[in-house]
Fold this sequence. Notes:
Layout: E1 2-11, E2 14-23, E3 32-35, E4 38-40, H1 43-50, E5 66-74, E6 84-88, E7 103-106, E8 112-113, H2 120-142, E9 152-154, H3 160-171, E10 176-180, H4 186-192, E11 194-199, H5 201-204, E12 215-220, H6 224-232, E13 234-242, H7 256-260, E14 264-267, H8 275-288, H9 291-296, E15 298-302, H10 306-314, E16 321-325
Parallel strand pairs: 9-10, 9-12, 10-11, 12-13, 13-14, 15-16
Antiparallel strand pairs: 1-2, 3-5, 3-7, 4-5, 4-16, 5-6, 6-8
Amino acid sequence: xxxxxxxxxxxxxxxxxxxxxxxxxxxxxxxxxxxxxxxxxxxxxxxxxxxxxxxxxxxxxxxxxxxxxxxxxxxxxxxxxxxxxxxxxxxxxxxxxxxxxxxxxxxxxxxxxxxxxxxxxxxxxxxxxxxxxxxxxxxxxxxxxxxxxxxxxxxxxxxxxxxxxxxxxxxxxxxxxxxxxxxxxxxxxxxxxxxxxxxxxxxxxxxxxxxxxxxxxxxxxxxxxxxxxxxxxxxxxxxxxxxxxxxxxxxxxxxxxxxxxxxxxxxxxxxxxxxxxxxxxxxxxxxxxxxxxxxxxxxxxxxxxxxxxxxxxxxxxxxxxxxxxxxx
Length: 328
């Protein structure tokens, strides 16, 4: 039997990203098969589908780092046919066939039961970006950053992780500063709950070892000089949750924020995050994420449009979330 999906292939220097018929016999090993209803296009998917980053480590590959839909077949004790599930990370779209296809076969241990508070489409409106944003907020809370601690900064605020982080933090009562490189995004970010906008240029160039204390915590999806400057202006005892590298994977920083102000740099990994933490994150998303705001910043495209959106993401033309209706 065949099903529709995107396939990435690479032979020496020849790269191909094509939508076509895939054979069920080609699918990788797993004890649960899911009829994928919705997926998304994330920054990592953009890198993979445009071959602009070393995301894919096994060829050929079906891209798509997350998906949601019903189980069609299972030999895993926790799942049966008809169960609604969501998957984020675990290397799908990188080392294991991912969600930008009508079917996915994966390990049941990678799946989380879809919370009753969300439809599959809403789960992908949140997606890996939103789930990662929740992990970052949880990390700040774990380190004692409360609304009374002071402002919280979100970098890359108009992107997928940033947009959700701004919305969650504002809903929880934090005063949120949103850093973005696009002036036109100011009203958009304030609608999500940002109290003030910081131009990206203030943070993106080489900075001083230690700056004025400006925020008690931060969610950073950018890395490089931006993260270094965020750390330099974090208040005494503050925490920065780092989850991305949109500007770069380097970190040209100094030890001063750590040894003079006791600042914590807390790494956030959404790919291999343990299942109990994943389930807690999805539970909290159901409690504190205003879906009406999130849906207002989400666009939905069909499976055939995925490559175009990937190109747009890499060219900085996408803000908010893009959901892929696999059968649309």
